[in-house]
Specification:
Number of strands: 6
Strand content: 15-25%
Distance between the termini: 53 Å
Order of helices and strands: HEHEEEEE
Mean pLDDT: 77
Helix content: 25-40%
Shape: elongated
Structural class: alpha+beta
Length: 126
């Protein structure tokens, strides 16, 4: 019986820790990349792809250099001649934001309320 109480207490503590971590995200500041490198760009693309649950995301070389927010939309489907296959895309773009907290950069996906750390990227407060 004591083991069940201990296990329940540990699970409760883990849940509180996760909630506290979620609250700390609200304390993060919008950020800009202080320098852009191929490593940080690859790290950002991988993190954003993970957040969007897709295999690959392409971002511009200057992404997050002038704004902490980035709007992402799907590439239109085209035929070999470059003509649109499916017409217009009415899907809303995904918004991601670069944030910094305690000198740690991370990218945050607003729609899913998820984030990914960016240990290779260097950020400054926007």
């Amino acid at each position: 019986m004591k083991i069940h109480h201990l296990l329940g207490s540990l699970l409760l503590l883990a849940g509180c820790s996760l909630q506290a971590e979620g609250l700390r995200i609200n304390e993060a500041s919008p950020a800009l990349l202080s320098e852009s490198s191929t490593d940080s760009k690859a790290e950002l693309q991988h993190a954003i792809a993970s957040l969007l649950k897709t295999e690959e995301v392409l971002i511009a070389d200057d992404a997050f250099m002038q704004s902490s927010r980035l709007s992402l939309s799907r590439a239109p489907h085209t035929d070999p001649n470059g003509q649109l296959i499916m017409g217009r895309n009415f899907e809303m773009p995904d918004m991601v934001q670069l944030l910094i907290m305690d000198k740690q950069c991370f990218v945050y996906h607003e729609k899913s309320d998820q984030n990914r750390p960016l240990p290779l990227s260097k950020c400054i407060v926007e």
